Fold Transmembrane protein.
Amino acid sequence: MNHREEAKRANNDEDNGGIDIVVEKSHDLISGGSVPKLLKKSAGGEKCCIFRIHQRLRNNNYKDAYEPRVLSIGPYHHGKEHLQMIQEHKHRFLGIFMDEAQKKGVDMKDLIEAVSELEEDIRESYSESLYNGDVSGRKKLIDMMVLDCCFILILFLVVARKVSYPERVKDPIFGMKWILTAKGVTYYFWRIRFLSFFFKLFMTNRRLGRQEG
């Protein structure tokens, strides 16, 4: 083999080596990617029904229709400053709910356990990942769902006079009629999943049911 052939072969080996490096590095495109957070793989599943409105839709003439004006339910708008007025009252309404629930033998532990059993379904209902799956992340999600569901249920139960609430006349939430008549509030509430489960839990004696079973 002459010098020209040796040089050509060396160049070929170098070229092949370069391709091998490129191929090897290309695997990083697959293995090095982070787990999707903004749109989970399961977002196309049957259980997924809660999506964040795309910014393109928000930029039209009806952008206000996609932004809550009075209160937030769930994680997507949680913590926004203009919704904090009602957020502060949720804990008070939770106390009212628990006063009634305890008459039926349902305590906070029952509610926490009930939501814990539904945690996977709750996560699958949202198109985005909700907090971390560690202890603190799970607690944050479960606490939020308990608080929001109890707030909505006791609100409707009082309005429908299914629960006696003597302080209703003086309560600022019921005194501000615009809160309950805000466009779409009632419709939005009843489309929320898991409310029916909480309602059944509230209307039945869960603790007695366990003892009888």
